């Protein structure tokens, strides 16, 4: 399967809508925000960005849980569905997942199994996820990070992860906003 947006939406819907309706609301809003942010990436990568937004949290689906780390579980499942390799890798590493993987003792597995891209696409995916709340509401990035910390509580590994990841997340959001205010990137010749 290519990085097809309709197929990505259908896969995410099938895995999340009924069993995790709140997560599904978040995912729908992240996909909408990725569409709005598409001007921050090359026209060639816009479908890939939006497809990754639809699928970034698919690993929370109870059916897919294996290690319990949603980025890795989701990406492994996507690879088994023959999803585009770059798309699977974007899901594996979305929103600084490598830092959470380290907290979970899965840093090596994640890094060996999926290549980590650093690009306007990874920045824009992080932007879409980290400016969208758990119910799909729009947040400033610092509000969103505070929301995550308060939802998991102090001492939780997700809270430790998000504290370590904050500078990188804030930088990715800033780069995306700067690209958007500079105007849509043009088609490479
Ligand atoms: Fe998310």
UniProtKB/TrEMBL annotation:
<dbReference type="InterPro" id="IPR006675">
    <property type="entry name" value="HDIG_dom"/>
</dbReference>
<protein>
    <submittedName>
        <fullName>HD domain-containing protein</fullName>
    </submittedName>
</protein>
<dbReference type="InterPro" id="IPR006674">
    <property type="entry name" value="HD_domain"/>
</dbReference>
<dbReference type="Pfam" id="PF01966">
    <property type="entry name" value="HD"/>
</dbReference>
<feature type="domain" description="HD">
    <location>
        <begin position="23"/>
        <end position="129"/>
    </location>
</feature>
């Amino acid at each position: 399967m290519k990085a097809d947006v309709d197929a990505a939406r259908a896969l995410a819907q099938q895995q999340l809508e009924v069993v995790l309706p709140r997560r599904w609301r978040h995912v729908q809003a992240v996909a909408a925000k990725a569409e709005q942010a598409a001007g921050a990436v090359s026209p060639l990568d816009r479908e890939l960005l939006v497809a990754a937004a639809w699928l970034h949290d698919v690993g929370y689906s109870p059916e897919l849980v294996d290690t319990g780390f949603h980025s890795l579980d989701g990406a492994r499942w996507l690879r088994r569905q023959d999803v585009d390799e770059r798309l699977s890798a974007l899901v594996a590493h979305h929103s600084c997942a490598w830092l959470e993987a380290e907290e979970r003792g899965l840093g090596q597995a994640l890094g060996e199994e999926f290549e980590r891209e650093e690009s306007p696409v990874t920045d824009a995916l992080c932007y879409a996820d980290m400016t969208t709340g758990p119910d799909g509401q729009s947040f400033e990035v610092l509000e969103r990070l505070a929301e995550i910390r308060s939802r998991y509580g102090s001492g939780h590994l997700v809270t430790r992860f998000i504290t370590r990841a904050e500078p990188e997340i804030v930088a990715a959001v800033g780069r995306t906003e700067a690209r958007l205010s500079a105007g849509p990137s043009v088609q490479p010749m």
